[in-house]
Amino acid sequence: MFLPILFVLCFRLSSSDALDFCVADLKAPQGPIGYACKTSELVTVNDFVFSGLREGNTSNLMKAVVTSAFSAQFPGVNGLGVSVARLDLAVGGVVPMHTHPGGSEIIVVVRGTIMAGFVSSANKVYYKALRSGDVMVFPQGLLHFQINAGKTPASAYLSFGSPSPGLQVLDFALFANDLPSDIVKTTTFLDDVQVKKLKGLLGGTG
Ligand SMILES: *[C@@H]1O[C@H](CO)[C@@H](O)[C@H](O)[C@H]1NC(C)=O
């Protein structure tokens, strides 16, 4: 009598879990649609919690650090279309022009003043000094930047419409690789001295 009912209940419980989420199996390769799902018996609450969005270390060239909770760091967001990160900018800090090919971004400033902006496909620039409590959205794929525009450290939380939005920094794409200087010069209209200087600064060769 009871067995069929129990069976139905168990089946429903386990099958509904599988449709609720797809915690990333970080041992499996990541493709464009994300990671494969971890077996649901192995999923724990810690897959849905990320405790790393503390203040980051800004001792670097950009005087800035982005601490990411994307699916690679935060397996619970895999497949859910969202993720989060934290930005810390020391005085004079900058996140240079960059894009996230996979998703739009919302910045929520919680400390200091951040000059933020993006460039549309028509090369129109939308930028503004944001202070604590201000929010700005950067549409998917568009180049954008953040600069500490104040005299104190600044911080913000970033949310993304993708569990794995990706990141490409324009200056690194242009100057932090081994594309020969002659080609960089030709494709950027910069002179040789400028190209070599930027390659040196950002760690490129060639
Ligand atoms: C921050 O990073 C710098 C450079 O890597 C390092 O020397 C310094 O100890 C770090 N500071 C902290 C508080 O971890």
UniProtKB/TrEMBL annotation:
Belongs to the germin family. It comes from the Eukaryota. Residues 1-18 form the signal peptide. Its main location: secreted. Keywords: Apoplast, Disulfide bond, Glycoprotein, Manganese, Metal-binding, Secreted, Signal. PROSITE patterns: GERMIN. Residues 51-196 form the Cupin type-1 domain. The keyword Metal-binding applies. The keyword Manganese applies. It is found in: Secreted, Extracellular space, Apoplast. This is Germin-like protein. Gene3D superfamilies: Jelly Rolls (2.60.120.10). It holds the Pfam family Cupin_1. SUPFAM superfamilies: RmlC-like cupins. CDD domains: cupin_OxOx. It comes from Hibiscus sabdariffa.
